[in-house]
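Put briefly, the fold is written as integer tokens. The lines below illustrate.
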Amino acid sequence: MQPVFRAPMRSRRDDIDPAAAVEWALAEALCGVGGVVEPAPGTVEDAVVLVRHRYDERLARRVQRFADAPGGARVWTRDGDGLFWVGELTGPWRYDPTPAAVAVDLVHVRDCRWHAVPFEETRVPDAVRATFARGGRNWQGIHGAGVEAQTQALLRET
């Protein structure tokens, strides 16, 4: 089974609307994390160095973890209406310097195939709900007994 990750797709910047960032990522079939840097890095190694220099070690590690997640890994996010979306990472890390990506501070991106229908909180695996309930803006693994199998079963139902 593939690992499952929490992808809040939320900027560290308080002036960025988190709902707009998620909406943009879903529409663009992307999963992303923030951390605008210049010049635009061509490799994740360069990105990590630039992020560490501009921000801090914690964000640099987050970008690295995001880039290192295996293709096919499941990701969960939550939109502005409180609905949960599940997707599958389908592409490698890349830096997106476009104005739209910078505007929502989701510049470290990966292609993601999002499930066409969101889920209400009551249908989401307990481990997913617990991870989101802790809050935060981190890219992190979702751990819990059977979360991978529960996610797969939920997708088969719809």
Summary: Strands lie at 4-6, 30-33, 74-78, 84-89, 94-95, 108-114, 140-141. The first helix runs from residue 18 to 28. DSSP finds six helices and seven strands in the chain.
